[in-house]
Amino acid sequence: MNTASDMHLCGKEFEWPTANNQVVVLNGDTRELICAIPDNSVQCAVTSPPYWGVRDYGVSDQIGAEPDLTAYVKSLVDVFREVRRVLTPDGTFWLNIGNTYSSGGRKWRDVDDKNKGRGMSYRPPTPEGFKKKDLIGVAWLLALECQRDGWYLRNDIIWYKPNCQPESVKDRLTVAHEYLFLFSKSERYYFDQDAIKQQTTNGDGLKNRRTVWSINTEPCPEAHFAVFPKALVRPCIMAGSCPNDVILDPFYGAGTTGIVAKELGRRCIGIELNREYIDIAQKRTAEVQGSLILEG
After folding, report:
1. pLDDT by residue (tens digit) across 222-236?
2. What CATH number should be reported for the domain holding residue 242?
3. What gap in Å lies between CA 48 and CA 232, rounded to an integer?
4. Tell me, what DSSP letter sits at residue 170?
């Protein structure tokens, strides 16, 4: 197992998560910092990266703000190639990603009273090959590029959101789902099916978990956006790892992956560019760990 002496960040050592300090967060661009994590050192990765053209995170050169869809997909495929490198040979990667629509002609996104983070001064142009108002299957475009890059694509899971955000659209249905893709590094990998089995309909036994998960979004009092729900992260970590294993979230956000990892007796490394989000994660993680180990 790797120790602190194996880990270097911007020319200095940083601390590998231990039994006493299970959640370590690196502050900086994941495209740079993930390179410091050793090969084959993480058992499971769970993340929800910035969606394309949906939210302004207030950071220059941010992933998700690329004017070109191809550049956005390439940026994430490059990051996830590093995720594959750091995973153990039997490791898994769980990716939550949603689709989006091309603009109807506007070059900005109006402020949304229900979601303050969605007001932006820019809006990506309609990608080549698409039409105005087209549904852009970003989730599947990304999943298929990851597959071509070497990942084994094992499941597409529908995250159904019963409390989805209302939409005022009049010419299509309200979107109430996102995708959760299960990837593996190798043909054979660790997967604890028993840990996430569900009750049968009549309640007299257990059945394998299905690929449609009904999970409410979770508000975050410290932020103006819904966070990665713990109920979405928990089965990923339970199926993909054992106690004391290391979990990675290269887009740590408000820290849900670390909180769930700690609750389940795992360790966690998170990488987050936005210091404001790390401050939010610090407050939320205090529920299960005195404080984050913050590096960078």
Report:
1. 765 667 899 999 999
2. 3.40.50.150
3. 11
4. S
